[in-house]
Design a protein that fits this description.
single chain, 471 residues, alpha/beta, TIM Barrel, 2 domains, nine-stranded parallel β-sheet, two-stranded antiparallel sheet, 14 helices, 13 strands, disordered N terminus
Amino acid sequence: MFDDKEQNEESRDRRGRKRHRGRGHAIFRMLLIIFLSVFGVSVYRFTKGLLENGDNAAKLSSLFGFEVNRTTPSPTEALQPASTATPTVTPGPTPFVDPDFDSPYLADFEDFRSPLVNLKKAGFDCSRYTEERPFRVKGAYAAHMSNRCYDTVTWLAGFTELNAVIIDVRDDNGYITYDMDCETAKELGIIAPSGSAYFFEDMPSLLEDLHKRGIYCIARIVCFKDDILSESKIAEKHPDWILKKDTGEFYTDGYNYVWLNFYKKDVMKFIADIAVRAAKDGFDEICFDYMRMPAGVASVNFDYGCEEEAVPSRTEQIAKFTKYACNRLKPLGVYVSGCVYGITIDSDLDSANLGQDYKELSKYLDFICPMVYPSHYSRNFRGIENVNGHPYELILLEMKNSEKKLEAVREANGGYSAVCRPWLQAFSYDFTDVRKQVDACYDAGVKTWMFWNSRTEYEQEYFLTKEEENF
C-alpha cells in the first residue's frame, strides 16, 4: 500500500511538471506566431514600396533575373499621356434615323433583310427555298383581295409555283384599302369606306394567314395618280398638292383624273408614310406604281411650284423620290420595287417625258418591274410586225435589252443594280401565250415575274405544279 502511495505521488509530480512545461511551450509558440505576423506585414509593405518605384523594380528584376509586373503605375508613368491606341469594338446595328429628302443613299445601312422572315415567323416550312435556289417571286395581281380572289390564289399556291400576291394598298382611285394607322390619310378622308368593295377589314390578319400558306405579300401603292377631279379628296383639301398647268388650272388626264405634284416634299412624304405603315403592318415588299408623269404630256407646260432656281428634270425628281423612299423603307426590313413602262427599256425620250429613267431607278430599287404587255406595244416594234401575236419574241427581246442596261448600271454602281422582275400579260391570252412569256423570261436569264390581270382571273394552266416548277 505504501509503495503504491509513493508511486501515485511521484506520478502526480511528473504530470504537474509536464503541464508546467506545456504551458511554457504554448506561450512560446504564441509569441513566435505574433512575431512572425508582424515581421511578415512589415516585409510585405517594404517590398510593395520597392515594387511601386520603377527604378527599384528594375533593379530587382536585374538582381533576381525575373520580370516584375506592376499593376500600379509609378509616379513617372502616371504623368505620361494615355495610350492613343484605339480599342477594338464589336460594331452593333446603326440606329435608324428617319432620312431627309437630301440624305445620302442608305448611309451606314447594313442589309440583313430576308424575304422569308415573315413566312418563317408564321410557321411556314421554307426548306424548299435554299441558298442554292433562293426565293423568286412568281406572283399575281390580287387587287383588293376579294373573297373570290382569295380563294383562287390560296388554292393555286397550295399546289402550283404561285408564291406571291400583289395587293392594292393605295389603289387607282386614291383609296387606302384598309384602316391604316396613317394620320395624313385619315385627315384627308381617303380610307376606303368600310363595307365597300375597296376596303379590307383586317389587313394584318390577312397577311399572317397568307404567310402561313407560304405566300409572299407585296403592297401595291399607286403614287401620283389620284381620283377623278370631282371625287378627289386631296384636290379638295390640299389643292396645293395637285399638278397644275402653267395657266394655274388643275391638270386632268384623258379620264379626268388629277395627278399629285411629285415636286412637292409633302407629297413625297405622304406616299412614303403610307409605304412605311404598310411595311410595319406586315407586307414583305412595297411596289410603287404610277411613279411617273401622266402619259402623253410632252407638249403640256406645267407649273411645278418649285422654290429652286433650277427646276430638276422629271427623271431627276422621280429618282429623288425613289432614293428617299428606299432610305426610309429598306432599314425596316422590306424590299422595294417600282413599276415602269416597258418602253423605258428602249427609249430615252419616253423616259424623259414620263420621268422614268430605267438605269437611274435601278441604282436604288431592289426590283424594277417593266410592264411588257405585248398588247401595249405598237406594230412593227423592233421589226416585230404583229407584236401581240408574238409574245415570246417581244419578251425575249425586252428582257435581253433590260439585262444590258442593268449590266451597265452594275459596272458604274459598284456591282449593284435592281433585279428585273417584269409584269407579264395574263389577259386576252390563252394559257399557251401566257407561258410563252414566262419561257422567254427564263431563256433571257430572268427567273422572276408577275402576272397582271385587272380582273384577277387566273387559270390553273398559267402555272406549273410544284413538281414541274423550274427554279
